[in-house]
Structures are given as structure tokens and as C-alpha cells.
Design goal:
Length: 179
């Protein structure tokens, strides 16, 4: 019988706590995270929005941290985000789940599906209703500096190479996503 130190036992929990805290920080920076919104409240927010408009909110189901609420051609839809093994991925039926990519952050996950949706590569099989993620529903009007950061990060992943003051590079690097 071996004894495990408390540091070794706590490592996965520490890693999970750190990953979730980082995901929360990124989501709050994104501007389309709505916190503890219910499914009905999300439906109201998205009521008059165009297909492909989405937001991320806290999941009302205990087994999940977050849910994406989006407008589809068939109306509002909710898709849970699964967190397991320090990775985030969309929840799906058992036959599809192994084929879905995993991400280190919720924002990276959303960014991936936004890129797929915008490129037209997100068509589902068997005539199912596509879940398009095209434009975020912001919880408040985002500041111009954030929108500029998103636009710059959409053009380059090499922010450090730009001829800008270090303070501005740090700000750009604080949110390296284009959604």
C-alpha cells in the first residue's frame, strides 16, 4: 500500500479550479456571457434576433457549467457545454460525442464553432436543424477598445510582433479571440 501526498491528491482539483476560473475570466471579457440567465430569460433575450445569434449562460443543470443559447431556423435552442478532464466540449448523444473536439476554454470552443458556422462547414447530417453560431448577443454594449481587440485578433495571432506599445500588446493578448 502506498500513501499519496495531499499535493498529489489535490493536483487535479487545483487544475480544474484554475481552468474554470480562467474560463470565467475569458467569458466575462467576451461580453456575451450572461451569467445565471434561465432558459426562458435567454429565449426572451434572443426573441427578435436573427438566426445564428447566440449567448453563453450558466447551465441550470448541475452536471454542466455552461449552456449556449442560440437562435436556429426552428427557434431557440440550448446546448450544454460539458467539462471533463480539464477540457470543454459540446454535450451530444453518445454516438456523436467522441467526434466532437475538446478545448481548453469555453471562448475557444465558441470561437471554433463560430468559424465553422461562418465558413458554412457546420451543416449537420440527416437534415437536422443546424446550430449556427454567427453573432454574439452582448449583455451590454461592448467598449470600442474590446471590439478593436477582437478585430485585431481576427487578423493576426502574432500580436507580439505588431509595432505597438507593450501596454497595448498586453491588452490585446489578454483576449486572443476573434469573437
Amino acid at each position: 500500500m502506498t500513501c499519496q501526498s495531499s499535493e498529489a491528491r489535490d493536483a487535479p482539483a487545483d487544475r480544474d479550479g484554475s481552468r474554470v476560473a480562467s474560463a470565467m475570466k475569458e467569458l466575462k471579457n467576451a461580453g456575451w456571457y450572461w451569467g445565471s440567465l434561465t432558459a426562458d430569460e435567454a429565449k426572451d433575450v434572443l426573441r427578435d434576433a436573427a438566426e445564428g445569434t447566440f449567448l453563453v449562460r450558466d447551465s441550470s443543470q448541475r452536471d454542466f457549467l455552461f449552456t449556449i443559447s442560440a437562435v436556429t431556423s426552428a427557434g431557440p435552442a440550448n446546448l450544454r457545454i460539458r467539462y471533463h478532464g480539464a477540457k470543454f466540449k459540446l454535450d451530444s448523444v453518445a454516438s456523436v460525442s467522441p467526434k466532437l473536439r475538446e478545448f481548453d476554454s469555453v471562448v475557444r470552443l465558441v470561437e471554433h464553432y463560430v468559424q465553422l458556422s461562418r465558413s458554412g462547414a457546420a451543416a449537420p447530417p440527416n437534415g437536422a436543424v443546424p446550430l449556427l453560431l454567427i453573432r454574439p448577443a452582448y449583455s451590454a454594449v461592448p467598449p470600442l477598445r474590446h471590439l478593436s481587440r477582437v478585430a485585431i485578433n481576427g487578423r493576426t495571432r502574432r500580436v507580439g510582433d505588431l509595432p505597438l506599445p507593450n501596454r497595448l500588446k498586453d491588452y490585446l493578448g489578454d483576449y486572443l479571440y476573434n469573437v
